Amino acid sequence: MTVEHRPAPRAPVGVDEVLARVREAGGRATTSRRILLERLFAEGSHKTAEELAHEVQAVAPDVHLSTIYRNLEELERLGVVTHAHLGHGPATYHLATETHGHLSCESCGATLEAPLGLFDGLAEAARESLGFEIDPRHFAVLGHCAACRAREAAAADG
User: Is 6 inside any structural domain?
Assistant: First the structure.
């Protein structure tokens, strides 16, 4: 049995489309929000609010970290970005254009993006045995990547 995940709102494909969505929701298309969105669309990878703030502040030094957090919260509410907890560090943010789960290596810190279908069995088991609905987009399954496992096996053999 395949678990059906709640569909996320269609993620916008560009900065101007996001800003139009913000305006439709009663928000403002501020300069700091535009710069943040440009960084998110340019990079597309998982970044912490602090990393994003550093990039935004390189262009607009007066933008405070609290502004970045408020913008990320609003963009997440609108379905533009999503956050994930990839291990022991702070939450990371990325565009919600493609929903996926995460596998995080505890040895080297690499993060693999995993299709949500990979978590279907876990989601079904949690729902059936515990009555709990998981959302695998917001956490990482911790373990060891193939490269680290091979390196550890070679060290144990030699």
Answer: no
**Range(s) of the domain holding residue 106:** 15-157
**In the chain, where do the E strands start and end?**
47-48, 81-84, 92-95, 101-105, 111-114, 140-143
Q: Looking at residue 12, what is its pLDDT?
A: 57
Q: Position of tokens 């059906």? A: 4
Between 101 and 12, the higher pLDDT residue: 101
Distance CA 128, CA 154 (A): 41
Distances (CA, A) of 80 to 9, 69, 128: 8, 14, 31
pTM: 0.72
Signed CA dihedral, 50, 79, 98, 6: sign only = positive
Number of domains comprising the chain:
1
User: Cα 66 to chain center, whole Å?
Assistant: 19
Judged by phi (left if over 0) then psi (alpha if -120 to 50, else beta), residue 7 lies in beta
